[in-house]
Write a structure and sequence with these properties.
The complex is a heterodimer of chains A (566) and B (258). Chain A has 566 residues and is an alpha+beta fold. Helix content of chain A is 24%, strand content 26%. Chain A contains 13 helices and 20 strands. An eight-stranded mixed β-sheet of chain B has the order 5-4-6-7-3-8-9-10, with helices on both faces. The chains are: A alpha+beta (566), B alpha/beta (258). At the A-B interface, helix 13, strand 12, strand 14, strand 17 and strand 18 of A face helix 3, helix 4, strand 5, helix 5 and strand 8 of B. Strand 12 of chain A pairs antiparallel with strand 5 of chain B.
Chain lengths: 566, 258
């Protein structure tokens, strides 16, 4: 064989070219290819590249398919879809802006896994995680939701509940947990409830609010139930921040080397109060139960209502009116005590056969005038069908407003005050419906038919500019026939309208009104020239011409009747 | 008022004096009347003005829409003068809304003074007016109806005197031929308003409107008719200038048309 044609033995031509450092020659054979599980176990930056794996190409992923974040650590189990943030599949953080600085205030579990922490700069978080969903924090909405939750707690779990800002609730569970099957069961129910709402929560039950606060936030367990009297030992190992200390007290404690709550126990109280402040000592005593810390419960707003259960079923209008009067008296005394006025009231009558009859009244402004309310309900008594008899009547007020005494504006000079129209408005509204009572208010538009809108019957709207305007306006402008007029700016000499020919003896105008191009493009160039004309016999009209009389795009120069002067 | 039997021996002048005293007391109960401020008009009205606790009917002289507008403004002007103080409100009850509020404002009745109430039919409108009258917190009430019989007007008159609120019943024309004021009614006064040619101006333009104001009937007085100048911005009518001024410009009115 003249030439070496066996490439399997050595691909290097004989007689030269051998380099001692060549990779293929380092240890004779190629390194064994690692199996897939071993590669997956490596961190992302240590995995062999595709080229090293010996593959030149591989099928590309579909570009629109959701891709898992490549920064995710290998071996992590996917987080259960228990939170709202993970529903999007993207790490999400909330940021708050203080001056020029944006700080992360909260991070979803995915983002926490990726190493993002509340308190870091938003730019830093964005740099660490490319595919990060950054949203504005809305603390007011959070507070609103917490308030709602506290009201829910008051209604369902315990009468004494309040908000522990910024992210917690106090529940005074004394004597209520047995209704839910014991403390442990209540805690589980609470967690389930929160999970269903989309929140993760931790619950701690302790003898003092301070200990419960510390354990719920720093205890590290979802449910902590302390036996009574063991608060001091339970919170001993927790960091000082669990005690709700002020930031400067925390900083001072850090300087003294105090880290855990137990560090405070052996210290004399006098120097401690001097170094950390009296508030810190109070917090410690509150957490250990030496100082009382009552929970100030939220009180839900209860709409005033009155109810009468009747000894015998009633069916006559007189009897119903009598009960209505009693109910109104009860309600008015409640409203008076609470400084409220009524806007809407619903009277519910329970009929013997179980059916309900309802009538409702609304008032134009807040009132607690018993005579007026009785009269308004009496106007609607005929709508009640008593059937076999009414055995109970209730009056509830879905809408009430504060109604305080009003200062009389200067009527010392003896002039009488303007009469109060609200009772009359209610009465007339009861007769024809509330929509049928209105005032007219000016709208900023020069086009005559758009210049007004309906307003509240008790409003005091402002007037219109003092351009001469007719007393009655036609619903739609009506085309005039046989118009003879000099263009561009003279009123017509004669015209016909509704079959009658008119000869004009005097005219005023034109008053030019341009179209409102911001409403529709058709009015871009539109122009109306209005004239006030008087025909023979004293008939005065308001007529207009479409177009300015010169430019064709402004209108077709046709004439219309629009209104009538007196 | 009950007719008191007079002794036979009294003289005729004593009878008359007693009757006049009774009339005076009855008139004093009704409250003060609102004068128009036009001497020629007020002198011919029995009360020296419009009774502030009574029903007054107003109709257009013809079925034309111009007379209709004139009668509307006449009513609006009266209401504006009744509601002249601040904070007073006029109720305008109607069934078909074709008023133009900027024009009504120019008779002195601004948007803060009118409360509109729209009923479905005439019976609704009359009921609204009666409720408003009995409430007594309104300065004046205008109701636009097409038909109102003697019973309805009687009710309104009683309600007006109970609530001491003036009531202006605006009777719209139903058909071209019949005047709505032909039917009997219990109104204190009944007015018929029509347009009249305005005085030609020495320059181009339309002068102040003029109306032919006809009092068709009044209690305790005679009917009359006048030509007056239309309401100004506070609802006041005016007497036209002397006739001598008018003849000058009436030569060729068409020359001022353009």
């Amino acid at each position: 064989m003249a030439v070496d044609d066996d490439p399997g033995a050595c691909s290097v031509p004989l007689g030269g070219g051998w380099r001692p450092g060549a990779r293929w020659a380092r240890d004779g054979t190629l390194a064994p290819r690692p199996d897939a599980a071993a590669i997956d176990a490596l961190p992302a930056h240590q995995r062999p590249t595709m080229r090293e794996m010996g593959r030149r190409s591989e099928p590309a992923e579909h570009p629109f398919k959701a891709m898992p974040p490549d920064e995710a650590m290998p071996g992590t189990t996917p987080i259960a879809a228990s939170t709202r943030s993970s529903a999007w599949g993207r790490p999400t953080v909330l940021i708050a802006r203080t001056g020029q600085r944006e700080v992360v205030t909260a991070a979803c579990p995915l983002a926490l896994e990726l190493g993002l922490r509340p308190g870091m700069a938003a730019a830093h978080a964005r740099a660490l995680v490319g595919d990060l969903d950054v949203r504005e924090a809305e603390p007011e909405k959070d507070e609103g939701f917490l308030d709602q939750l506290a009201l829910h707690a008051v209604a369902r779990w315990t009468p004494a509940a309040s908000v522990a800002s910024p992210d917690g609730l106090w529940l005074d569970l004394s004597g209520t947990t047995h209704l839910f099957g014991g403390e442990a069961r209540f805690c589980r129910r609470l967690l389930t409830f929160m999970r269903r709402l989309g929140f993760t929560a931790t619950v701690a039950i302790a003898g003092t609010p301070g200990a419960a606060h510390a354990l719920a936030r720093h205890g590290g367990e979802a449910i902590t139930i302390l036996p009574p009297g063991s608060e001091g030992e339970a919170i001993a190992d927790l960091p000082l921040a669990a005690l709700r200390l002020q930031p400067d007290a925390l900083a001072a404690a850090g300087r003294f080397g105090l880290e855990r709550i137990a560090d405070l126990y052996p210290m004399p109280r006098g120097p401690l109060a001097k170094r950390l402040g009296l508030a810190a000592v109070e917090r410690l005593d509150q957490a250990r139960g030496a100082l009382a810390e009552p929970i100030v419960p939220v009180i839900p707003f209860e709409a005033p209502e009155a109810e009468r259960r009747l000894l015998e079923p009633i069916g006559t209008a007189d009897a119903i009116n009598q009960v209505i009067g009693d109910l109104i008296d009860d309600l008015v005394s409640q409203l008076q005590a609470r400084g409220l006025g009524l806007r809407t009231a619903i009277l519910t009558c329970l009929v013997v056969d179980g059916a309900e009859q309802r009538i409702a009244i609304g008032t134009a402004c807040a009132t607690r005038d018993a005579r007026h309310l009785t009269r308004m309900l009496a106007m609607r008594v005929e709508r009640i069908d008593p059937g076999l008899g009414i055995e109970a009547m209730m009056l509830v007020t879905p809408r009430v407003e504060p109604l305080q005494p009003q200062a009389l504006d200067a009527c010392l000079g003896g002039e009488s005050r303007a009469p109060d129209l609200a009772p009359l408005v209610d009465q007339l509204g009861g007769r024809v419906g509330e929509d049928a009572l209105f005032r007219l208010a000016a709208v900023e538009s020069d086009v005559p038919e758009r210049g007004f809108c309906r307003a509240n019957p008790l409003a005091t709207p402002d007037g219109w500019p003092a351009w001469t305007r007719p007393a009655r306006l036609l619903r739609r402008p009506e085309r005039l026939a046989n118009v003879i007029a000099l263009l561009p700016d003279h009123p017509p000499r004669r015209f016909s309208w509704r079959g009658t020919a008119y000869r004009v003896v005097a005219g005023d105008g034109p008053e030019r009104i341009h179209g409102e191009w911001w409403r529709t493009p058709r009015e871009m160039w539109a122009v109306r020239d209005y004239f006030r004309v008087e025909a023979g016999g004293g008939n005065r009209f308001w007529i207009f011409r479409r177009g300015d009389g010169v430019e064709a795009p402004t209108g077709d120069f046709s004439w219309y009747m629009h209104g009538l002067f007196g | 008022m009950p007719a008191t039997p007079f002794p036979v021996d009294r003289t005729r002048s004593e009878h008359l004096a007693a009757l006049r005293a009774e009339l005076e007391s009855a008139r004093a109960q009704r409250g003060p009347a609102l004068p128009f401020g036009v001497a020629m008009l007020d002198d011919r009205l029995a009360d020296g003005g419009l009774d502030g606790a009574g029903l007054h009917e107003i109709a257009a002289a013809s079925a034309s829409l111009n007379d209709d507008a004139a009668a509307t403004l006449f009513a609006a002007g009266i209401a504006a003068r009744f509601a002249a103080g601040s904070g007073f409100t006029v109720l305008w009850a109607l069934s078909k809304f074709d008023l133009y509020a900027p024009g009504i404002e120019q008779a002195g009745l601004g948007p803060a003074k009118i409360l509109y109430a729209q009923g479905r039919k005439d019976a609704d409108v009359l009921a609204l007016a009666e409720d408003g009258l009995r409430d007594g917190s309104l300065a004046c009430i205008i109701a636009e109806v097409k038909a109102a019989d003697q019973t309805a007007t009687r009710r309104l008159q009683l309600a007006a005197s109970d609530g001491r609120t003036p009531m202006l019943l605006y009777r719209r024309h139903r058909s071209r031929e019949r005047c709505p004021l032909d039917t009997p009614s219990s109104a204190m006064t009944r007015w018929r308003i029509g347009c009249a040619p305005s005085m030609p101006l020495p320059h181009t333009g339309v002068g102040r409107s003029r109306w032919s104001v006809e009092l068709a009937r009044q209690r305790g007085g005679n009917p009359f008719s006048l030509e007056l100048e239309a309401c100004d911005a506070t609802g006041r009518l005016a007497l036209p200038a002397a006739a001598a001024d008018r003849a000058v410009a009436a030569v060729r009115a068409t020359s001022h048309a353009a």
